Amino acid sequence: MNIFRLAGDMTHLASVLVLLLKIHTIKSCAGISLKTQELYAIVFASRYLDIFTDFISLYNTLMKLIFLGSSFSIVWYMRSHNVVRRSYDKAQDTFRHYFILLPCLLLALFIHEKFTFKEVMWTFSLYLEAVAILPQLVLLQRTRNIDNLTGQYVFLLGAYRGLYILNWVYRYLTEPHYVHWIPWISGIVQTLLYADFFYYYFDSWKNNKKLQLPA
């Protein structure tokens, strides 16, 4: 554990809390992609298969439970809650997310650190997380006008991954033989996908105007 990883975890947790605040308090999921939330639920379900078998620390287990529980809760809200689901813009959220599941799984089967079920599924979760934000970014580009909570949610998600990259750099410089190419490359790809959003997010903040993405 170091300050960059802790900051990354807290930023990730903050993104989930912002989204739950929007859904639970305002009873709205406008501007939120159900496709991205389903992909994140699959990411956490495939990554945390060891939650009840490999105990690392209370902190580690608690964070796993939080991300598993919150991701499936968000999907349930958007699919089943009578009020929330009416605010879901299904007509705009049309990214065919199932088309990226198979490529990520095949990539994990061929490029992994160890050929075991848990390791392949963990690697699959890394590849899938790298691209899971795509349906959300496409939805924001289509709707263009982005409310504050949705903008903060996406910004915090991108910031979390950026902080994790700093965590990897720190560990590489301070820990001998710390080399993990698969998480590094996946994390860099994921962060690059946010670059355009970050530009317009900071531009709107600097000029005190409503966040909009170009069509």
Short note summarizing the structure:
The protein has helices at 3-25, 34-47, 58-80, 98-110, 117-131, 134-143, 148-174, 181-193, 195-206. It is mainly alpha-helical. It is a multi-pass membrane protein.
Descriptive notes:
With 215 residues, the protein is mostly helical. It has one domain (3-206). Helix content is 70%, strand content 0%. Helix 4 (98-110) crosses helix 5 (117-131). The chain is globular and about 45 Å long. The model has no long low-confidence stretch (mean pLDDT 91). This is ER lumen protein-retaining receptor. One of its GO terms (biological process) is protein retention in ER lumen. One of its GO terms (molecular function) is ER retention sequence binding.
